[in-house]
Every structure is written in structure tokens, then in C-alpha cells.
Design a protein that fits this description.
By secondary structure, the chain is mainly beta. The strands form 8 sheets. A 4-stranded antiparallel sheet has the order 2-29-28-27, with no helix packed on it. Strands 3-4-5-6 form a 4-stranded antiparallel sheet, with no helix packed on it. The chain has a 4-stranded antiparallel sheet with strand order 7-8-9-10, with no helix packed on it.
Length: 438
């Protein structure tokens, strides 16, 4: 580091230090709505990277519109830049999952009435590659990818004839590996919904039975571990009204914690879906009700890297009942509206939140929202104040010290403005954010 830079840093430190002397301030989160591009009806967030820097956005239509095939993009929350993802052949593309560094995106290509759908993998280097699916069906979509982008999981089904649906694991070197169902009866019916960041654990559901109208069909939450193809049955939540139906939706980074949802009962013995958290030691444990709405159904969709923050949504009737929800062991379920309101941040009254995903630290939360005034889906993002550098919920002198330390060591986290350079502009931008309190 040059002497000139050191002098500038000393000056910046003095300036920031004056603000720091003002004392401790609660860090407000930033809440933003993602509008669809011109020509598209909807824009929704489909995934958040574990580092919280990138969100995956899907642009969709309420009906087919020639000249505007479905597509998506990666949004960099540090600098606002976007990387567009579309099929060069003009097929509809729906991005569904993203790797840790945003270099790999997976999802589905094509579709429509009686048309085939194919899984795809997009990379920075090669663009969109159609990887197909299992040969037994014609509807395939990739739903998850490991942190390093090397392992992809998804599901293949059929849109004609007998019911069939099967999860799979895919790698570039090994191709498709079908994941076995709970029991090979007349029919295979299951899915792979996601994979842990380390690539060790695939989660979804499986079925025992043949899908005919008798009583032997029971679906359960399952996982496939250590590159194996035989599922482990996690079971279902207690529910006298239903014999099955649980689905695993996400896992902690090492696969030791799995979350999802399934049929259960409300406190008054009415039907209600409930989120669950699974570990080998405790089994499938219901995460209970939202205290302010115990009758509402809760769906757990994603979790933090350690599995101690679970995010999802609540439904209790129509659109106006939708709420994004967050669970931790110490707080239980809370709505995102309530969490943000405590920080002085309000969600628009006409905006109702559903499908929800989170970063590895559980602090960046994003997903689908519905604007009831416009009857349109929008993307939403709730993320920590950038000046809260150490993510402790406060903007204080410790944030300045931590940033200065990262800057001096040229740690990647000090690239505050996201321009891939660690320089004095990062220090100036941090100082401005720090001085404004966010």
C-alpha cells in the first residue's frame, strides 16, 4: 500500500471516526421491489446466493407473448449490475437455482401444453447448455446446484399417460444418475428439490404405492446422502387427517439439517400445513404456528447455512393473508413485516409476500411478492444495511474497525462497491454509508 493511500485512509478514518463517536445506531434493513422488464408481466426472485451478494430473477408472463420468451438475470446487490440469462434459440427459460459465486445457474427450458421441457445449465464461460433429463419422462427441470456449481439436481416427469416423476443428480462427467423412490411399486413418484451447499445431500420427497385410488399411497420427506441413490425416509408430521405429504425443500450447508413442510393440524385441530426441521438426532420436528395467526398454514422453503434460520411463507385464505415468515430457535415464527417494522422499515400495504429464500447467514431474504393493486407478481429483497459491515444489527465503530481491517488486508469483503477492485473508492463509499447510518 502506497504512502499516499495510507494518508488518504488516515483522513477517511478520521472522518468516519467523527461519525462513530455519535454512538450506536440500529441498522435498518433495505427493502426493495423488483419490477418486470418492459414486455414482461412478472419478475420474481427464485434464489439467493449463500454469500448474500446475488439474487436470481425470473421474468415471466401471464400469457404467451410472441417476441418475449421467458428469461432471467442475476442481480448483483453490491453494484446493481445484472447478468442476463436467455436461451439463444429463443426457448422459454426459467432459472431456478444459482451457485455460491453466481457462475452457474440451472433451471428449465421450453414447455407449454403437451410440449417437452428440458433441464439446463448456464455458466459464465459456456452460456446455456440443454442437459435434457431422464429418458422415462419429457418434463425435466433442474431445481438445485451445489455451492461450487459441480453437482446439479432436479426432477423428470411426464405430461401424458401414467403419473411418473423421479429425482436425479447430474454432473458433467457422470451425466444423469436417477434417484430411487421409497419403494418400487407400479410407479415411481418423487422429486429432488434441492442439494446442500457441499453437494453431499439431496432433499425432496418419495412415495410408497402405485398412485391408484387405494390407501397404500404414502409420500414422505426424504433425502439421498453421500452420492447414494437410496433415499432415507424422514417421515411425516402427525396429522390424523392425512397419512403423508411431507416435502423436504432445503438443507444446511453440510446437509445435517433439513427443512420443509407437510400436512399437520392447527391448535384447534383444523387442517394446516406446518414447516419442519429435521436432524438425525431429533427426527422430523414441527416448527409450530405463527402466534399471531395459529390457524394459518406455514411452508418452510429455505434455511441458513447452519440450519438455525428457516424462511418460508404463511397462507390463511386469499392473497391478502400471504406473509413471508422467519423462524429461529429463540424467536419461533415471525413475519418479515414485523421484523422490518421494528427497524422502521415498512412493506407497502398492497404487497403480499410468498415464496421465500435466504442467504447463508439468514439475513438477506428474497422471493415472490404479489401487488394486489396491479394483480402482478413482483420480486422482493430484504437485506442488511451495507454499513452494518459485521452484520450484528448495529451501525457502530466496530463496523468501521472491521472494514478497515478487511481493507488493509485486501480481503474480498472490502470490495464495498462491487467493482472487483479494492481501492480508495471502496473506503469513500463505506464512509458515506456509515455516515448516513446505512
Amino acid at each position: 500500500m502506497s504512502n499516499a493511500t495510507k494518508k488518504l485512509l488516515a483522513l477517511a478514518a478520521a472522518c468516519v471516526g467523527v461519525t462513530a463517536g455519535a454512538g450506536l445506531a440500529s441498522a435498518q434493513s433495505i427493502f426493495q421491489v423488483i419490477e418486470p422488464d418492459t414486455g414482461y408481466d412478472y419478475a420474481v426472485v427464485q434464489d439467493v446466493t449463500k454469500n448474500g451478494r446475488y439474487v436470481l430473477v425470473s421474468l415471466q408472463q401471464s400469457q404467451t407473448r410472441p417476441g418475449f420468451p421467458l428469461k432471467g438475470y442475476i442481480l448483483d446487490l453490491k453494484n446493481g449490475q445484472r447478468t442476463n440469462i436467455s436461451d439463444p434459440g429463443g426457448a422459454d427459460l426459467n432459472p431456478l437455482a444459482i451457485s455460491e459465486d453466481a457462475s452457474v445457474v440451472v433451471g428449465s427450458l421450453g414447455g407449454g401444453p403437451l410440449a417437452s421441457t428440458f433441464a439446463f445449465v448456464w455458466t459464465n464461460d459456456t452460456g446455456v447448455t440443454n442437459i435434457g433429463g431422464l429418458s422415462a419422462g419429457n418434463i425435466s427441470y433442474a431445481t438445485g446446484v451445489s455451492a461450487n456449481g459441480s453437482v446439479v439436481v432436479g426432477t423428470t416427469g411426464a405430461n401424458f399417460g401414467d403419473q411418473y416423476q423421479q429425482g436425479w443428480r447430474w454432473t458433467e462427467s457422470g451425466g444423469f444418475v436417477p434417484l430411487l423412490d421409497l419403494a418400487e411399486d407400479t410407479l415411481i413418484y418423487g422429486s429432488a428439490e434441492d442439494i446442500s451447499a457441499d453437494g453431499s445431500t439431496v432433499v425432496g420427497f418419495g412415495t410408497v404405492g402405485d398412485q391408484d385410488p387405494d390407501t397404500d399411497d404414502i409420500s414422505s420427506a426424504v433425502f439421498w446422502a453421500s452420492s447414494g441413490t437410496t433415499p432415507t425416509d424422514m417421515g411425516n408430521l402427525p396429522s390424523p387427517l392425512f397419512t403423508g405429504g411431507a416435502q423436504a425443500m432445503a438443507a444446511s450447508s453440510d446437509g445435517s439439517v433439513i427443512v420443509g413442510f407437510g400436512p399437520a393440524l392447527s391448535p384447534t385441530n383444523n387442517f394446516a400445513n406446518r414447516g419442519f426441521r429435521y436432524t438425525a438426532s431429533d427426527g422430523l420436528v414441527s416448527l409450530g404456528s405463527l402466534p399471531s395467526n395459529p390457524e394459518g398454514s406455514l411452508y418452510a422453503f429455505d434455511c441458513s447455512s447452519d440450519g438455525n434460520t428457516v424462511v418460508g411463507y404463511l397462507i390463511d385464505g386469499g392473497v391478502s393473508s400471504w406473509r413471508a415468515v422467519v423462524w429461529t430457535p429463540s424467536t419461533g415464527w415471525r413475519t418479515l413485516n414485523t421484523i422490518l417494522a421494528a427497524q422502521g422499515v415498512s412493506i407497502p400495504n398492497n404487497l403480499f409476500l410468498r415464496e421465500t429464500y435466504c442467504s447463508g447467514d439468514g439475513k438477506t431474504i428474497a422471493g415472490w411478492a404479489y401487488n394486489l393493486s396491479q394483480n402482478r407478481y413482483k420480486g422482493y429483497i430484504s437485506r442488511p444495511c451495507p454499513a452494518d459491515f459485521n452484520r450484528d444489527g448495529q451501525v457502530d465503530f466496530f463496523d468501521y474497525l472491521d472494514f478497515a481491517s478487511a481493507f488493509a488486508s485486501e480481503d474480498a469483503s472490502a470490495d464495498f462497491n462491487g467493482d472487483s477492485q479494492i481501492d480508495f473508492f471502496d473506503y469513500l463509499d463505506f464512509a458515506a454509508a456509515f455516515s448516513s447510518g446505512c
